[in-house]
Amino acid sequence: MGGMQRFVSAHIEATLDAPTDLVLAVAVAKGPRRTEQLTMTANGAPAFAREIAAPHGGRLHLVEGLPAGPLTIDYQAGLDGVADIEPPTDLARIEYARPSRYCDSDTLMPVAQAEFAGLGGKPLLDAVSSWVGSQLSYVAGSSKPIDGAVDTYLSRQGVCRDYAHLVIALLRGLNVPARLAAVYAPGLDPMDFHAVAEAHVDGAWWVVDATTLAPRPSLVRIATGRDAADTAFLSTLKGSLTLHSVLVGATVDALPGDDLTLLTALR
């Protein structure tokens, strides 16, 4: 896996309804060796971004003073090799054990304790992933942007971010720190940005993806946070926009298998 070659891309088209400042989270996080290019055209003219460091190696791009009109964003990156496994910190363990906007673990604590009593470590991660995967139906467009883990638990359907939010909330309800990672996912079908959970167990952060839609060993980290509020691929700080299309690509030289008996970290 040390020589893994991955290529990722994102193409975004929108219309800015007013002068706008926006933030992108489409660039891969620090780690693997990479070559990349980010280009933007706003109302027919080139636009330029300022890179902002984000937690866990994330890299945001702030674009200010964009004029009203059409906007096109293109990002491409080639990755050579894999990242080092991130060492855990006490602050991260504390922060990611708390309830958050979309991961209302305090409300779901009784459910977590009833379903997974007596489990810990990898058996707990396996049990939560399997339970969420079996309880939910993956239905595109079935959830609203404001839905949290409780909404997903009640509706029993959603997309990748909803699966991840429910996994995170259940784990936090058992005092296991958990967080959300936005990723590029070679092998995902249909292709899109993907979201997975990461859980702190046995001194490291391990991927938990209850959708099982893409092999964990080839995932590429973009952004990491408490939930989807921290990892949106595009958000506005000023002004507004209408999003028209998002095309995502992610390939790997040899698509790996995914041995579910093993703990896997984002690399």
List its salient traits.
single chain, 267 residues, alpha+beta, Immunoglobulin-like, C8orf32 fold, 2 domains, globular
Walk me through this protein's architecture.
By secondary structure, the chain is of the alpha+beta class. It has two domains: 5-83 and 233-251, Immunoglobulin-like (Sandwich), CATH 2.60.40; 90-229, Roll (C8orf32 fold). It is built from five helices and 15 strands. The chain has helices at residues 90-95, 105-115, 121-135, 149-155, 160-172; strands at 5-16, 20-24, 33-42, 45-47, 50-53, 59-66, 69-80, 137-138, 157-158, 178-184, 194-201, 204-208, 220-225, 234-238, 241-252. Strands 4-3-7-1-15 form a five-stranded antiparallel sheet, with no helix packed on it. The chain has a four-stranded antiparallel sheet with strand order 5-6-2-14, with no helix packed on it. A four-stranded antiparallel sheet has the order 12-11-10-13, covered by helices on one side. The radius of gyration is 18 Å and the shape is globular. The termini are close together.
